[in-house]
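Thread: "does anyone have the structure for this chain?"

Original post by V.I.:
We have the sequence but no experimental structure in hand. Need at least a predicted one for the grant figures.
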Amino acid sequence: MATRSMSEHEASATSEGSSSLLASMREMMEEKRGDIIEIFKTIVAYVVKREDMGTLAPLENKITLFASVISNVEEAANDHEQRLASVQGSVDQLQGKVDFLSKKCEKEGRSGLNNIRILGIAEGARGPHPTEFVAGLLQNLLRLGAKYFVA
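Reply from O.Q.:
Generated one for you, tokens below.
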């Protein structure tokens, strides 16, 4: 049996075949690596989306509930604002009446200070013309003549 040694030509051919095979394998691995990365990204995105949906659903329900509550509060605030405006109008009107009546009472009080009360004469006996009544009364009591009569 003779051993045969590899010739340079055979070694070169084997080396080229190995390099070509190795390059082909590297290229195939890169393609598969890219495919695997894309599949992994898709799976991760799906899982994250599911978790987000599970987490977000209760939050969305709470947000909807809070939006409803806020809407009710806004309606109540608007209603109270309208009522307050109505009450403010009534208060302003009543304040005007109070001011008018206060001034009237003050005038009545001041004019009452100028009144003279004559004892023994009944209230209301003066008639529609109090000045003439008092002048006539004084003339009769003091027995004055007509020259002192004030009309």
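V.I.: this helps a lot. The chain has a mean pLDDT of 82.
O.Q.: and Residues 116-151 form one domain.
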